[in-house]
Specification:
By secondary structure, this protein is mainly alpha-helical. The protein has a single domain, classed as Up-down Bundle (Growth Hormone, Chain: A). Helix content is 80%, strand content 0%. It contains 18 helices and no strands. Helix 3 packs antiparallel against helix 17, helix 6 packs antiparallel against helix 7 and helix 13 runs antiparallel to helix 15. The protein is globular and about 60 Å long.
Length: 419
């Protein structure tokens, strides 16, 4: 018995170390593309794009980035080539960002195409990367495991916008387009570090599947009963969640914030994202779906503060709530999938989850981009109503989990839940 306990402890330490390694990779990748996202709204404005165009492209990018994960998730499960698929996706991801430096010479259509390409790369690598992480996360607790990932993600997501804030501030006396182009070119450095670390991780941890000894919940169809109710809630949540480029466009257009301050607000959102991921991840391992319900209810109020703001203080409050919602999406929402699905179906489950999320985010982002030009209060009402509609489905998922045959494995169902 002592040898078994020791072996289990060593397994958990190794799983934890693997999650931290993946988190450091995410740190540099997020530094790259979240830095880009923090300034892409004003950049597209300078290139001549409209609010409706930005809303459409943001939504289309998320639809591609999420929708195609259904296919790539199935492929990753059927081939088992999780590392190869992740590396290919990351490569496309990381090349697209510094290529945005050429946009002043090619126009906003070129920039929009690269934004969609960047999301395409993420669609390829995300189910595989999440599945790799899930093998280790089951050993340390799903909420805690994905929270570690998200917290390290957001260190990079904080540093990227702050780096670009420094660049745009130092180049404040120059023409804006060349300054923005230089900022995107600079993001090529963390992109290169990302790829190098990814190859090291592949060599050091060739078979992360071996971390997970427990095969997880078993049902006839592979998914537990609450999965589809959960997906319905996710759809409404995604539809009402605005993308940051539209908020940044609003802040600059209404002169609530100066151009160079927008990345600072995005960086603040990323810091909140990291803290909320750790907080709600730990809560998920202890209380299950309650963490999802509370996080969704709190973050829903970002829209009135962000879009009706006339002062930087109110805008900041909206961005903070938006960051809480983002932290929940990137940690506990994934942890629920890990809880509901056995490991041999998890790539597919993450693909279905992300495809649904992306499809409804696309619809919602496009709708909010159109509503922005018609009536901002209507946009706010649309966002609030959509997110509120998700709560009953999350309650239903909670009831189904409690009533299911594998309820004893549900986080929060027993004092022995991992974490």
């Amino acid at each position: 018995m002592p040898d078994e306990v020791k072996a289990r402890g060593n397994g958990r330490r190794s799983a934890f170390a693997f999650l931290v390694f993946l988190g450091v990779i995410s740190l540099f990748s997020d530094l790259t593309y979240e830095g880009a996202r923090s300034i892409i709204g004003p950049y597209l404005l300078l290139l001549g794009a409209s609010a409706a165009t930005i809303g459409f492209v943001s939504g289309l990018g998320e639809f591609v980035g999420y929708g195609l994960r259904l296919i790539t998730g199935i492929i990753s499960d059927r081939t088992g080539r999780y590392w190869l698929i992740a590396i290919i996706g990351y490569a496309i991801n990381m090349i697209a960002i510094p290529a945005l430096a050429l946009a002043p010479g090619f126009g906003w259509v070129y920039a929009c195409a690269l934004l969609v390409a960047e999301r395409f790369g993420k669609a390829i690598r995300h189910p595989a990367k999440n599945t790799l992480a899930s093998f280790a996360a089951r050993e340390v607790g799903p909420g805690k495991g994905f929270a570690i990932q998200e917290a390290l993600d957001q260190v990079g997501a904080f540093l990227g916008p702050m780096m670009l804030f420094a660049v745009l501030t130092l180049k404040g006396k120059e023409e804006k387009l060349p300054a923005y182009a230089f900022a995107f070119l600079l993001l090529g450095l963390p992109a290169a570090v990302t790829m190098a670390l990814l190859l090291v991780a592949r060599k050091r941890y060739p078979r992360p599947q071996e971390f997970e000894k427990d095969e997880g919940p078993k049902t006839a169809g592979g998914f537990r009963p609450g999965y589809w109710s959960y997906m319905a809630g996710i759809a409404f949540l995604a539809m009402g969640f605005a993308d940051f480029p539209l908020m940044a466009f609003h802040f600059v257009r209404t002169r609530v914030l100066a151009d160079n301050i927008v990345p600072v607000f995005y960086a603040a959102a990323m810091a909140v994202d990291a803290a909320s991921a750790l907080f709600f991840g730990r809560m998920y391992d202890r209380t299950g779906m309650n963490a999802v319900i509370i996080a969704s209810a709190v973050s829903a109020f970002f829209a009135p503060l962000a879009f009706l703001a006339r002062t930087p203080g109110l805008a900041a409050a909206g961005v903070v709530l938006w960051g809480i919602g983002l932290g929940a999406q990137e940690s506990i929402l994934k942890a629920v999938v890990t809880t509901l699905v056995p490991k041999d179906r998890r790539g597919t489950a993450f693909g279905v989850f992300n495809a649904g999320f992306g499809a409804f985010w696309f619809v919602g982002s496009w709708a909010m981009g159109i509503l922005y030009g018609i009536s901002i209060p209507v946009l706010v009402a649309f966002s609030l109503a959509s997110q509120a509609a998700s709560i009953p489905f999350f309650f239903r998922t909670q009831r189904l989990l409690a009533a299911g045959p594998a309820a004893e494995n549900t986080p929060g169902a027993s004092p022995g839940a991992p974490g």
